[in-house]
Amino acid sequence: MKMAVGTKDLAVEKLAEMDDAALAESLRSAKEELFNLRFQSATGQLENSSRLKAVKRDIARIYTILRERELGIREVIASGEDEAETSEEKTED
Description:
GO terms for molecular function: structural constituent of ribosome. Keywords: Ribonucleoprotein, Ribosomal protein. One of its GO terms (cellular component) is cytosolic large ribosomal subunit. Belongs to the universal ribosomal protein uL29 family. The protein is mainly alpha-helical. The protein is built from four helices and no strands. α2 (20-43) packs antiparallel against α3. It starts with 11 loop residues before the first helix and ends with a helix. Mean pLDDT is 81; it is low at 81-87.
């Protein structure tokens, strides 16, 4: 099965490893790219129309991960500091 154009750099596993702030930044940049692609499409300057579909899917993936975290379906990946604290607590017990 062939992967879409945009999914190579924004795979679900990679997105799931990001914290909420990084996901928000990825969402912002994807929306900005979508705006620019739509503008290019309207002016007839868009060369790769499949990129529009790929960026829309990337945005949907980000929203899905954020919603799964909100509902508790997918856990938020802890940052390095939190993991160190958690391992210290386990060794003290």
